[in-house]
């Protein structure tokens, strides 16, 4: 994701705040919004920004449900990052308790929430702006299927933009990096542009 000081940027799930702190040090003149969607994540995010950001007064910290942005701040942002809460199979399969609870129903429930959040992100993005939809899931239900449904349902008429990378593999609407292909993952990224 390329950011400049001219962008009006939103990080919809900004907690724990490491990305916001990094951006504040790299682009000191960039004013942006970062969101902690639960009371505890909002509090942690606010603390991390206050203590570590280079330009904390230029960073707006909200505690909203992610779906609120599409209504309350429609067509506001030039760039939106949506790192959607997802299955994160790497964590799930390493934790016996989580693994016992896991079924494909979990990933389908996540996909329903992710679709609402992605439609909100698209609505919050101005004409010509870009949304980056990211998950830590290998599930197609949470990745390309969510994007495909959002492309059909969103009123903003977004289009998927091809992402060039040497890591991972191309999917219909983005890229997928699996844990055996990189020192991190799983990771899915889709870049969506709102037409002008």
CATH architecture: 3-Layer(aba) Sandwich
Secondary structure: helix percent:
25-40%
- The whole-number mean of residue pLDDT values reads 91
**CATH class category name:** Alpha Beta
Describe the largest sheet: 9 strands, mixed
CATH superfamily placement: Vaccinia Virus protein VP39
Q: Report the CATH topology name.
A: Rossmann fold
DSSP summary, beta strand count: 9
Distance between the amino and carboxyl termini = 20 Å
Q: What is the general shape? A: globular
Order of helices and strands, N to C? EHEHEHEHHHEHEEEE
User: What integer value in Å does the Rg equal?
Assistant: 16 Å
Low-confidence stretches: none
How many H/I helices? Answer: 7
Beta-strand content estimate:
15-25%
Q: What is the count of structural domains?
A: 1
Query: Structural class, from secondary structure content?
Result: alpha/beta
Protein name: 5-cytosine rRNA methyltransferase NSUN4
GO molecular function, one term: RNA methyltransferase activity
Family: Belongs to the class I-like SAM-binding methyltransferase superfamily. RsmB/NOP family.
Main location: mitochondrion
């Amino acid at each position: 994701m390329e950011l400049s000081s001219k962008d009006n940027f939103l990080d919809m799930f900004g907690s724990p705040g490491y990305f916001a702190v990094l951006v504040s040090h790299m682009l000191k003149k960039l004013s942006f919004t970062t969101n902690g969607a639960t009371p505890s994540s909002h509090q942690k995010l606010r603390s991390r920004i206050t203590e570590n950001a280079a330009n904390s007064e230029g960073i707006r910290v909200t505690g909203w449900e992610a779906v609120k942005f599409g209504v309350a701040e429609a067509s506001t942002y030039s760039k939106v990052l949506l790192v959607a809460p997802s299955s994160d199979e790497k964590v799930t399969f390493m934790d016996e308790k989580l693994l016992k609870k896991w079924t494909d129903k979990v990933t389908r429930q996540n996909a329903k929430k992710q679709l609402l959040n992605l439609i909100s992100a698209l609505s919050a993005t101005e004409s010509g702006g870009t949304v980056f939809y990211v998950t830590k899931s290998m599930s197609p239900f949470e990745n390309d299927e969510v994007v495909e449904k959002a492309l059909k349902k969103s009123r903003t008429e977004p289009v998927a933009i091809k992402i060039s990378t040497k890591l991972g593999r191309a999917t219909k609407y983005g890229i997928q990096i699996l844990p055996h292909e990189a020192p991190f993952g799983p990771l899915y990224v889709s870049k969506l542009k709102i037409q002008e």
